[in-house]
Amino acid sequence: MISAAPSLSVETDPSGRAVVRADGTAHDWLTAHRDALRATVTERGAVLVRGLELRDLEAATGAYRALSLDLMPDREAFAPRSRYADGVYSSSQWPADQPMCMHHELSYAEEIPGLLALVCLAAPASGGATATADAAAVLAELPSDVVNRFIDKGWSLVRSYNGEVGVSLVESFGTDDRAGVESYCRANGIEFEWAPGGALRTRQRRPAVVRHPASVVDCWFNQIAFLNEWTMAPEIREYLVDVYGADGLPFTTRFGDGSPIDEDIIETINAVYEAHTVSLPWQAGDLLLIDNIRTAHSTEPHVGHRQIVVAMAEPVRRDA
Question: Which positions fall inside the TauD/TfdA-like domain (predicted)?
């Protein structure tokens, strides 16, 4: 006799976040409910599981094992992380007083995580929420002329690795061996050139809109606004341009043909994200599952110690 899978009661918090209250030991509860949780993530875009009391790194990695996640390494990162185990990392190192704007993890890579799993080991005194936004709703609200221009041209990420600002070659490519970096770039559709002093400049063109493989909805899936120079704090942008030049920024975005993206387009994208933002403060022990294609996420500024353990999982290749 085949027993029925346990039911999953999903609440909708006043913020709009789907929330599930767990009532058992983490491993057993997650093992029993993992299929229902994955279905809920596909349907709702993200779900917060509260009550598992995941308070240390061992508990977090145990939760990822119970969910049977297919973990993947972090490559092409735009900010440093600490690696705790294979496929398990800290959240990106980012100034606490600065927001990390809406984006989809590794949207510029050839292999992208289909699912993000985040565990909060320590919640800050204030702020620091991992907010989310529905990528299909964002796409529907963006001006059609902006969307059509990006559909026609795509978008490109331009990066400069100068050894002083931004991540290192090892943090991004897993090696600083020139042949190894070039091999990775060729295998992943990344144009590259070396400067006389050894600095590396790369460019990769990607689509701005993708179709979700499960729900078959079109999603605004990119990091056009977040990694663009106009999203930087003005004083930081001015400093970087002054020191490294307009073409030497650690990262910025362009249209797929290399032409610049006007500031007003970046402001429009960020305004639409803001209108669709769902934010619920972290509590220590929380588990947040995010469909990385259907749902953008951001980090709000915070005060106090914040520790989030991140797993990138269920890799999807663009050519699949």
Answer: 27-310
